[in-house]
Amino acid sequence: MKKIVLSIALCLFAGGMMAQSAADKAAAKEAAKALKAATKEAKANMESAQKVKDEIYARAVDKEKPATEEEIISACKMGQELIQKSLKSGLLDEKMLGDAYKLSGDLALYPLNLYLNAAKDKIPFDTAHYYDNLFLLTDAMHKELQNTKEIKTGEKANTTYLEGKRKSLAQCADYFAYAGQFESECHHYDRALKAYDFALNYAKTYPEIADILDMRVTPEQISYYAYYCAHEAGNFEAMEKFYDKAVQLKEGALGVRQLRAQSYMERGDTVSWAAYVHDLCLESPKDNLDFIQILLAYYQKQGIDKMEKFADEVIAKDADILIANYGKAYVYFQAEKYDEAMTYYKKCTEIKPDYYDAWYQCGMCCFRQAMAKNSTISSIKNRQQAQKALDETKALFGSAIPYFEKARECAPDQPHKWAYELKQCYSVTGQSAKAAEMDALL
Fold first, then answer.
1. What gap in Å lies between CA 295 and CA 322, rounded to an integer?
2. FRET pair for 34, CA 20 to 30 Å: which of 78, 197, 240, 304?
3. Is 236 left (phi over 0), alpha (psi -120 to 50) or beta?
4. Which of 341, 403, 337, 433 is nearest to 421 (CA)?
């Protein structure tokens, strides 16, 4: 019984194999038929693209009725779609690939030239198509070179042609920098950054032109444009990517550095901002006066000792930085070291003779010392010593007057800034008429 069952099973298996074999053959036949049809379609698309190209190129130079720019671009787009279908199918004969990529390049070249002329003449044009078309063009030229065998002698010699194609491919590097600018102006930041990056890595992408690449736009310039574009996009990662090269552009270096500092604040990274701005200020104090002032205020909140340390660092680099000297004076003033504070306030007036705050603070140094001396008089029992202290107090009030008067010269229409202190000084020193004058201004 078991043998009979096994025999039946074997027969069924053999029958199944025969049926499967027939199905596979039918499927293979259909696949071969489909492949043949697809191959035929790929060739037909290439022939149609060639026909479109020939016709529009002929119409473009027709003296009687030349094609318009819109017609040329439209035809080239249509031809490009056809040739791209052929190329993407992967069904073109290997011997045809060089010609196919040449055709793709030809269909991309005409629109490129039209767009470049429009840009030169400041005429609006389709920047998005310029961008896409440019990538198609360079890819086509690159692959044409890869798939075209060089023939050095005879009627079919193409060495000169291929060398010209290499030069054309090299020239297109600059056009990617332009693409970045065009797309950035249109707020297409991702596309713009891709174009800038492509321009910077052009020789790596197309090594066959690395030895002849000579861009009009330098890598530093491209990185500079890309850096600002990345900031506009809020793409801080891209900013870091382009920073090192962008900051090498001499005429734009300061702006790049300042923008980087700003970006740290935009990211909410205060620690990195402070560290970067600190180094920036010490590298070039005169170019970063606003940052020095901001950082002094920042350090003041961190602790007066940190504020003083930064002020000292700046002064060590450049002793004539006004805000650093004022910051140093402020530290001493807060510590009630008025003589030391006076030294730096006076330095400020040397740097900026019409600096109201510095003149006023010079007066306040004397005024505070006078007030401190005056507070001791009542506790002095010796009459002569008490009189001496009183005389010293009057002298200190008197020494403040010239500084407050200089402050008055700097802000003559703002008596609320200086009249009270002058009134006190004039009163103590017995100049009642001037004290009354100040009182009238209050």
1. 14
2. 78
3. alpha
4. 403
Report the candidate in 158, 159, 173 with the shortest Cα–Cα distance to residue 212.
173
**For residue 1, what pLDDT is reported?**
44
**Distance between CA atoms of residues 236 and 217, nearest Å:** 24
State the residue for tokens 């209050």. 442
Q: What is the pLDDT of residues 154-203, one digit of tens each?
A: 888 999 999 999 999 999 999 999 999 999 999 999 999 999 999 999 99
Query: Do residues 57 and 110 make contact, with C-beta atoms less than 8 angstroms apart?
Result: yes
| Residue 267 vs residues 247, 264, 301: alpha-carbon distances, Å | 20, 5, 21
Q: At what angle do helices 97-120 and 2-60 cross, to 10 degrees?
A: 40
DSSP output for 20-58: HHHHHHHHHHHHHHHHHHHHHHHHHHHHHHHHHHHHHHH
The runs of H, that is alpha helices, within 61-96 are: 69-89
Name the burial class of residue 91, with classes exposed (0-12), middle (13-18) and buried (19+) by CB atoms within 10 angstroms of its CB.
middle
Q: How far apart are CA 391 and CA 104, in angstroms?
A: 98
Stated pTM of the model: 0.78
Contact 211, 256 (CB under 8 A): no
Nearest to 390 by CA among 368, 375, 404: 375
Tell me which DSSP letter residue 65 carries: S
Tell me how far apart the alpha carbons of residues 425 and 397 are, in angstroms, rounded to a whole number: 5
Give the CA angle between residues 416, 422, 423 to the nearest 5°: 90
Identify the CA nearest to 134 among candidates 102, 103, 169: 169
Helix (H, G, I), strand (E, B) or coil at 210: coil
Distance CA 209, CA 222 (A): 19
